[in-house]
Write a structure and sequence with these properties.
With 65 residues, the protein is mainly beta. The protein has one helix spanning 7-12, and strands spanning 2-4, 39-43, 46-47, 53-54, 58-62. It is built from 1 helix and 5 strands. A hairpin with a 5-residue loop joins strand 3 (46-47) and strand 4. The N and C termini lie far apart (26 Å). The mean pLDDT is 95.
């Protein structure tokens, strides 16, 4: 899973970048306390049984002021 505040950074991130939050075994991710009035972006890549990866779409939300 990739998570951050910059669209380009999340879209282009690899597993060595700060936006990479690790492999998520479940369907829940707790990002901790979020900043007010801030755009956040996340991406989840798919991994097939043969371990090939498929880059996921980037999604966005904005926190309230």
């Amino acid at each position: 899973m990739y998570f951050g505040t910059t669209l380009a950074a999340v879209n282009n991130a690899t597993t060595v970048d700060a936006e990479f939050k690790g492999n998520q075994p479940g369907s829940v991710y707790d990002p901790g306390v979020l900043m007010a009035n801030t755009d956040y972006f996340w991406r989840i890549d798919g991994v097939a049984a043969d371990l090939t990866k498929r880059k996921g779409d980037v999604w966005q939300f904005k926190t309230l002021a």
